[in-house]
Amino acid sequence: MESPARYAFMFERAVPGYEPDKDLRFQARCASYDLLARRVRPAVPPGTAARGAYLVWTTMHGLISLELTHRARTPPPGWFLQPGDDSYDRIFRDGITAILAGLRA
């Protein structure tokens, strides 16, 4: 939320044709995705941490993308989320909780 431009640079290929250095991408993965997998591991069945981390990562990505879009523009009429930190925080927490509960089931 503090840096939508950085988020766009990381996930949206904001610079066509730019491919980051492989070592830099590896370091970034270790500092983000691998950290997430380690944090997810205790909450999921043995052997499913990589899958769980991927599902949490994609859920977070989708929720954050929608929040950034809605904060930058007016949400569509009748949208189930009302603009505001409480609404976004709640749906983010609910989304991640649902993914982890589903993985435990």
Automatic annotation (TrEMBL):
Gene3D superfamilies: Tetracycline Repressor, domain 2 (1.10.357.10). The keyword Transcription regulation applies. The keyword Transcription applies. Residues 2-76 form the HTH-type transcriptional regulator MT1864/Rv1816-like C-terminal domain. SUPFAM superfamilies: Tetracyclin repressor-like, C-terminal domain. Pfam families: TetR_C_33 (PF13305). It comes from the Bacteria. Keywords: Transcription, Transcription regulation. This is TetR-like C-terminal domain-containing protein. It comes from Amycolatopsis cynarae.
